[in-house]
Amino acid sequence: MAKSEWRTAEVRYDVGVDDVTAFILAGGRSSRMGTDKALLSLGKQTLLERALDAAAIVANTVFIVGPRERYSRYGNVVEDVFPDCGPLGGIHAALCITQTELNLMLSVDTPLMGPDFLAWLLEQARASSALIAVPEALGGLQPLAAVYRRPLRAVAEQALKRGDYKIGHLFPLVPTRYISEAEIRAAGFSPMVFRNLNTSEEYQDLVQEEEALGVRGNGE
Prior knowledge:
CATH topology: Spore Coat Polysaccharide Biosynthesis Protein SpsA, Chain A
Helix content: 25-40%
Strand content: 15-25%
Distance between the termini: 22 Å
CATH architecture: Alpha-Beta Complex
CATH superfamily: Spore Coat Polysaccharide Biosynthesis Protein SpsA, Chain A
Largest sheet: 8 strands, mixed
Order of helices and strands: EEEHEHEHEHEEEHEHH
CATH class: Alpha Beta
């Protein structure tokens, strides 16, 4: 796949930010990476800073979901009510404190996720009354780049209490807007915005690709 396909399409979407809270899910174990993914550098920023900057363009309020002692210097932090329950625990914690109907959940390890795509995603969520708006791309659903409405909190809490930590198990239980890869492509975006970094090899590959793009951008 050509490097140009990794980038978000150059499309601008107007988006109201007052009705949205964004949450960066940064509290994963990063066991396959071997180090905290959120604090890895890409260009002049950490992955966390990169995600925070993108989210701040589409939401007035942005929180980090993870351990306070690790991330408080980067912004406001929300900690899990149900610890060690994976990303669903983070989504539940976010929905416990949000004051807005729409809540963007974004994993820290998807550094190609730009604000233009996030604005478009929020438009799809606004246009639907569904409790979840979740994209489908790269062969599966993408629940960590999705929009959740506040009433989903009760459903998530019930799942956590019964020990069911699979986010995807919530989708059949509530009205869910599935956003197909075809829709994403038709809107001018590459599915590669969902590319995530799980291993050191994947991280090093992206670092090299970004460096190569920077060199070419400087005319060298």
